[in-house]
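Can anyone check this?
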Amino acid sequence: MNTLTQIRRALLLIVLTLCACSTPYRPPQPLDANTSFPGLIDLAARAGGKSADVLLVHGICTHDTSWAGVVVAQLMQPITAATSPTSARAAGTGGPQIQIVSSNVATSAGKLRFDALIWSPLTTPLKRQLCYDQTGKSSICEGTPPFTPSRARLNARFKDGLIDDCLPDALVYQGVARDDIQRRMRDAILQVMGTSETSPEVPLVVISHSMGSKILFDTLLRMSEEAPGSPAALVAQRAVDRLRLLVMAANQIPLLSLADQQIGAATLAAAGPDSLQRLLQKRLPAKRMAADQRLTLVAFTDPNDLLSYTLPADRYAGEGVVVYNILASNAPTYFGLLERPDYAHLNYLTNPGVGRLIACGLPSSTLCKRE
């Protein structure tokens, strides 16, 4: 075979591959034609000279403090802004702790304060028990003995990542460690939100991913049910009332909530309210809220994400709460057969289209840079 023929075949293969590659939901597409919500830049403008607060919570799989910087940088790309250096601290002492990563951003419209809760250190020691099984050692498994049996390349990648590193987070939280994880999340929330009497008019945004959503909602609900007037109960209620935008990426609540139900709860209608529903029911009555104090819940879902579900709007919408689902493609689909499962689940908050919608809202704010 001569060189020219090889080049032609290589070019043909490239063309076929490109033709077989698709991203049907890039840019992201709302399921509801009437979808409308404010972005971070709009909420910064409404903060009355103070900083609108943004709480970030990651999902399953090992994360470290660098995650916060990556996400904030992606969210700020459509916005003209100056970001202060980040600071990191532990939420408590003794044993593994949640790491809090904070940064302040000055935009042309107002200020934003980001606080990322990195809870991954809580489950890392337990996940190290599976290091012996990893073909390609992850950061938490470096230095452990090699896995010598032969595995197919893709099987090895997904076993190392989704099964040995990511799925254990859900198993740990749904087991006997749930109470301890919630107590440590409570400590982190109190550190971030319990230091000052924030005005009810200052917006709060929550951006949570995957199982991080459930950990956060379970913990806030538990705090709200502590003794009336206690610091934890007051912080939780204030957070719920200040919440203006709740962004859930890779929503897993329909799946994870099955662990909170008895076998007889066979249908969605028969299931009791989950922690998010119960939290939303604790918000101030809509008639006591100004129009710009209402809450918009936006759920981003990649239909090829094996671990994500759209959010049934009728279960969460109500007075003062509106719910929208938005479909996104986090990675290419090849030959209509496969999108890499790890990319589909993990790449929401680094997806430029998703980031722009969170930052600029829909329709896109005039305060954002033009695309």
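Reply from J.R.: I decoded it. The chain has one domain: 22-123+177-360.
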